[in-house]
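Researcher: I'm preparing a figure for a lab meeting and need a structural model of a single chain. I don't have an experimental structure, so a prediction will have to do for now. The sequence is pasted below. Please return the structure as tokens so I can convert it later.
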Amino acid sequence: VQLQASGGGLVQAGGSLRLSCAASGRTNNIYRMGWFRQAPGKEREFVAAIRWSGTSIMYGDSAKGRFTISRDNTRNTVALQMNSLKPEDTAVYFCATKGISGTYFHVSAYDYWGQGTQVTVSS
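Model: Understood. Here is the structure written out token by token.
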């Protein structure tokens, strides 16, 4: 599975960004796609995840109420709509996929990773 993340950029606090992750290759093997983020000097953090079928959505505490994850079934993409952005949301955002059920919030549970897209929120 190959993953291509896009949509990052620079935005002011309170603004919005929409990230997208396009999957290619053996997409039939995908069970779940997740978004993680990593700020400088910090560990990679779970943001949100969705079953490849588009159901079973989960959010990390930092995303609840502000971010929305969704699946575009026709284009094998998963979007992360981020609203009300804060400076502490500044990080590199990664998409990742896993092929089986089970834990969804651990980095180690995911098999394939995209290259990451930078999100910078200015105050």
